[in-house]
Design brief:
By secondary structure, the chain is of the alpha+beta class. It folds into 2 domains: 120 residues, Phosphorylase Kinase, domain 1 (2-Layer Sandwich); 196 residues, Transferase(Phosphotransferase) domain 1 (Transferase(Phosphotransferase), domain 1). The protein has a 6-stranded mixed β-sheet, with helices on both faces. A hairpin with a 6-residue loop joins strand 5 and strand 6. The longest helix is centred in the C-terminal third of the chain and has 33 residues. InterPro entries: Kinase-like_dom_sf, Prot_kinase_dom, Protein_kinase_ATP_BS, Ser/Thr_kinase_AS, WAK-like.
Length: 384
Amino acid sequence: MIKCEKRKLAKEKERFFKQNGGQILYQQILSRKVDTVIIFTVEDLKTATNNFDKSRELGIGGHGAVYKGILRDNKVVAVKRSKISNVTQAEEFVQEIIILSQINHRNIVRLLGCCLEVEVPILVYEFIPNGTLFHFIHGKQQPVSLEARLRIAQESAEALAYMHLSISHPIVHGDVKSLNILLDENYMAKVTDFGASRLLPKDEAQLMTIVQGTLGYLDPEYLQERKLTEKSDVYSFGVVLLELITRKTAIYSEGTDEQGKSLASSIIQAMKENKVEGMLDTSIMCVGMEELLQEVVVLSSQCLSIKREERPSMSQVADKLKAIRSTWSKLLLLKHNETELLIQDSGEDAACGSLSPSMYWTAGMMGMDIETPVANNRSTYSMG
């Protein structure tokens, strides 16, 4: 009886392995087209996650769950186990793994391997310890410095630009949001969750597909026409940029009884009425920085253009954010020098002198006395 069950289980694993393109992937590995992907057995991953124990859950959602795993060599990984659904065609799935395995960018979570002997393939990624950008912005009382926000924005933009331009087949992420940007031990941004991602065919700028994504971040043209393009990611990133400077969620309400508002629509309306300042996070509002914040608002509004051809590319967005950060650093240095002169002229000791509110935020943005959050083991990863 036990032998019969073992044979049945072995046959089922073999069937899933073939169904999920295991043989094709294995051939690619032998031909050295892929040399960075590890093929795990289901037993490997059960052991790593303590049989997918609930205490190991990093995040759970509509698409499945992500678990913290510890491999035999003590390497910590993130194990993404999707719910049963229509499995991607074997060739397409393998091609996606091949492309993802070739991505080598410091701001993109690295795919380490996969398990193909289950009905829906399990993916294994590098483990990122400090949770999501969403929780970093919205889940803490201590304000985050503008410098940190601009750096995270630039890093995320550079990752998306790399996906769009720097590999053999452009990849459209398809679900850019603050929950899909993780923060490593140094709070460096890492774009993750490629469940809705699509490889664009060569020489084609768009792909017809079933609409996927998240309410509040979805490109209106994609929603209407079902044409996924690189500019769909640009729109979604524009919403993330607004989250960073307003500390409002993509769909937000300002009162307990108020119906949810679209952050994208609200900022566009505020720009028309010249009321943008009222929407910005007060903790990053300081004297002399208004024009710089206005540049960030304008950039986000360009990303949110209704017509995709009017939106900048992700590489243009990344370049603009780099320029804004450079200007910001120079302004900070100038303001810091002015503050020191004021302290010297007044005869106050720097440790004893009181700071005005605007000077306090300047000090905070320069990295002084800004407390960094500690993420716990749970609710740090998103699954759709």
